């Protein structure tokens, strides 16, 4: 299948399609990870996005049963330089092309991903569409310019009904903005009794569950699209310990009066250095976000900055000055990526212990 990727800004990239033979539209972003494409494809934070992989060969170890971060993928499409049709891995159950076909996803290979990444770095992320090679460029570009992308990504990926991952440890309520299974794994390894609830669960409903702690998950889209979550967190502050990751981090910031803004091309990959301002230690982190907290706006809040990104000096972590609440912009559960930062889950457990005392 001869395909092409057309950007809203007018650039056209030709290639060969894989997966299903359907056109797909989304926000085109790039990821710098060398491995972990299965976790990436099933990460709800990529909802409605078409991801360009900067590493040239994708699919060489296939798809297996163990590395899913969600049951169903929310990604809109994938752009690669070269796709591997014959994966070599003892865990592999199917090829990337087979996975895309089964899940109804569209991808394109043979694209000059270095040139595409340079465009995204220079101009910023943009809307794009994977179409058949005979589609009219001008018509597609006009449609991309006039048709806005949806803004209800969190509603799409959040659980509709509460569910439990029971254990005998601290009771944690996980607010699901698009949670990766990696967060549940890390909490389960620490014997936490987990209840996962929808993004629009109220503070009153959460407190009725008598939790020892609240986890705010990662998720896709703009944090300003869910003001109800800001209000919920505002009511929960001081009532129970809170730990936020990625979208949860931004929600805490907005709940406390800070502001967020859209990054030019975001942070996506498993090789981002982050400085802990308290210890002056650097961790290599896994990241996937297109928005960040405005550091200047933190000065008028009860939050203090705890971490910064060394690539662009943007905010990567905060802690409340009064209440037991902290958050980070990156992913301490990794999946995929380095595990330098998973000690933060231990800090959350210690915070719950102190609070119980």
TrEMBL record:
Keywords: Amino-acid biosynthesis, Arginine biosynthesis, ATP-binding, Glutamine amidotransferase, Ligase, Nucleotide-binding, Pyrimidine biosynthesis
Keyword Ligase part of the UniProt annotation: yes
Stored InterPro entries: Anth_synth/Amidotransfase, CarbamoylP_synth_ssu, CarbamoylP_synth_ssu_N, CarbP_synth_ssu_N_sf, Class_I_gatase-like, CPSase_GATase1, GATASE
Domain of life: Bacteria
Region feature CPSase, mapped onto this chain: 1-170
Active site residues per record: 246, 331, 333
A Pfam family assignment: GATase
Pathway: Pyrimidine metabolism; UMP biosynthesis via de novo pathway; (S)-dihydroorotate from bicarbonate: step 1/3; Amino-acid biosynthesis; L-arginine biosynthesis; carbamoyl phosphate from bicarbonate: step 1/1
Database matches in Gene3D superfamilies: 3.40.50.880, Carbamoyl-phosphate synthase small subunit, N-terminal domain
PROSITE patterns the UniProt entry points to: GATASE_TYPE_1
Keyword Chaperone appears in the UniProt entry: no
Record: residues binding L-glutamine: 45, 219, 221, 247, 250, 288, 290-291
Carbamoyl-phosphate synthase small subunit N-terminal domain boundaries: 1-131
Reactions catalysed: L-glutamine + H2O = L-glutamate + NH4(+); hydrogencarbonate + L-glutamine + 2 ATP + H2O = carbamoyl phosphate + L-glutamate + 2 ADP + phosphate + 2 H(+)
GO biological process, one term: glutamine metabolic process
Subunit structure: Composed of two chains; the small (or glutamine) chain promotes the hydrolysis of glutamine to ammonia, which is used by the large (or ammonia) chain to synthesize carbamoyl phosphate. Tetramer of heterodimers (alpha,beta)4.
Annotated function: Small subunit of the glutamine-dependent carbamoyl phosphate synthetase (CPSase). CPSase catalyzes the formation of carbamoyl phosphate from the ammonia moiety of glutamine, carbonate, and phosphate donated by ATP, constituting the first step of 2 biosynthetic pathways, one leading to arginine and/or urea and the other to pyrimidine nucleotides. The small subunit (glutamine amidotransferase) binds and cleaves glutamine to supply the large subunit with the substrate ammonia.
Listed NCBIfam families: CPSaseIIsmall, PRK12838.1
Assigned protein family: Belongs to the CarA family.
Name the record gives this protein: Carbamoyl phosphate synthase small chain
Species per Swiss-Prot/TrEMBL record: Riemerella columbipharyngis
């Amino acid at each position: 299948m001869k395909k092409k990727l057309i950007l809203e800004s007018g650039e056209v990239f030709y290639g060969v399609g894989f997966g299903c033979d359907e056109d797909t539209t989304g926000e085109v972003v790039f990821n710098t990870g060398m491995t972990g494409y299965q976790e990436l494809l099933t990460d709800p934070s990529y909802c409605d996005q078409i991801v360009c992989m900067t590493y040239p060969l994708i699919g060489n170890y296939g798809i297996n049963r163990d590395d899913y971060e969600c049951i169903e993928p929310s990604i809109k499409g994938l752009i690669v330089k070269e796709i591997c049709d014959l994966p070599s891995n003892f865990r592999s159950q199917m090829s990337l092309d087979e996975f895309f076909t089964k899940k109804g996803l569209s991808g394109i290979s043979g694209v000059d991903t270095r040139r595409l990444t340079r465009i995204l770095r220079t101009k910023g992320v943009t809307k794009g569409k994977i179409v058949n090679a005979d589609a009219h460029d001008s018509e597609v570009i006009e449609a991309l310019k006039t048709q806005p992308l949806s803004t209800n990504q969190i509603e799409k990926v959040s659980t509709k009904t509460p569910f439990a991952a029971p254990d005998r440890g601290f009771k944690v309520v996980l607010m699901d903005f698009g949670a990766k299974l990696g967060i549940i794994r890390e909490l389960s390894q620490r014997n936490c009794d987990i209840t996962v609830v929808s993004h629009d669960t109220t503070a009153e409903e959460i407190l009725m569950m008598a939790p020892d702690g609240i986890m705010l998950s990662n998720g896709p889209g703009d944090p300003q699209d869910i003001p109800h979550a800001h209000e919920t967190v505002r009511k929960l502050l001081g009532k129970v310990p809170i730990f936020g990751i990625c979208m949860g981090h931004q929600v805490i910031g907005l709940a406390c009066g800070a502001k967020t803004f859209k990054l030019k091309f975001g942070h996506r990959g498993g090789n981002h250095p982050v400085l802990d301002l308290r210890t002056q230690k650097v961790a290599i982190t896994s990241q996937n976000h297109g928005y960040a907290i405005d550091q200047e706006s933190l000065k008028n809040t009860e939050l203090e900055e705890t971490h910064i990104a060394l690539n662009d000096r943007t905010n990567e972590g905060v802690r409340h000055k009064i209440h037991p609440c902290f958050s980070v912009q990156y992913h301490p559960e990794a999946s995929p990526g380095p595990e330098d930062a998973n000690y933060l889950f231990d800090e959350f457990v210690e915070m719950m212990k102190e609070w119980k005392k």
